[in-house]
Design a protein that fits this description.
CATH topology: Four Helix Bundle (Hemerythrin (Met), subunit A)
Helix content: over 70%
Distance between the termini: 41 Å
CATH superfamily: Formiminotetrahydrofolate cyclodeaminase monomer, up-and-down helical bundle
Radius of gyration: 20 Å
Order of helices and strands: HHHHHH
CATH architecture: Up-down Bundle
Number of domains: 1
Mean pLDDT: 95
Number of helices: 6
Number of strands: 0
Low-confidence stretches: none
Largest sheet: none
Structural class: mainly alpha
Length: 209
């Protein structure tokens, strides 16, 4: 499993001449890292008397961040599996009209699944971004730079996931599916951008940048 590899091993696999793991798995890693960084800020705030007035909020934020981290870790693996099914479909025989039709249908089904997975990664990265303003505004200022790193990592994960959604949509023939997914992607990106800008403004102000 990809998620059980050491960092060096994962990066080695990422650099190989195969389609998976690829950008979709990298998006999941970036998102999981961002959620972990927000969780770090929460953990270094909780239990300090100086921040007792926000402890309850930080505890709730911590629980959300950990759930997001865990789901995004799962999506690292799921994205690779989803695209492997597309590659398997392309390898199907195409010697007869029936085989060609079955192969085409399998490719289209695989592409849809390979779109849904990075779309879920995108949703979760946006959820991390929407959690970030509270964490970076109320968290321990001594680790505000780590919170800022989480904001940037979540935004990177969001945009990487969007790239993977779009490249699959470009090859899908079901226009209704393409329209639905495109509209959701645009809405999510707009939400993520707004949350990122809000969180980054807080980080910059607290750091004096």
């Amino acid at each position: 499993m990809l998620i059980t590899l050491p960092v060096r091993g994962f990066l080695y696999e990422l650099s190989q001449g195969s389609a998976t793991p690829g950008g979709g798995s990298a998006a999941g890693l970036s998102g999981a890292q961002s959620a972990a960084l927000l969780a770090m800020v929460c953990n270094l705030t909780i239990g300090h008397k100086k921040y007792a007035d926000v402890e309850g909020e930080m505890q709730e934020a911590l629980e959300k961040a950990l759930r997001l981290r865990d789901r995004l870790m799962d999506l690292i693996e799921e994205d690779a599996h989803a695209f492997d099914s597309v590659m398997d479909a392309y390898r199907l025989p195409k010697d007869t009209p029936e085989q060609k039709a079955a192969r085409s249908a399998a490719i289209q089904a695989g592409l849809k699944e390979a779109t849904r997975t990075p779309m879920e990664t995108l949703r979760h990265c946006v959820a991390v971004l929407e959690l970030a303003p509270e964490v970076v505004s109320k968290g321990n200022p001594n680790v505000i730079s780590d919170g800022g790193a989480g904001v940037l990592s979540a935004h990177a994960g969001m945009m990487i996931a969007a790239l993977n959604v779009q490249i699959n949509l470009n090859a899908i023939k079901d226009e209704a599916f393409v329209t639905e997914q495109t509209e959701e992607m645009k809405e999510l990106i707009a939400r993520g951008d707004a949350a990122k800008d809000k969180a980054w403004a807080i980080v910059a102000a607290r750091l004096g940048m």
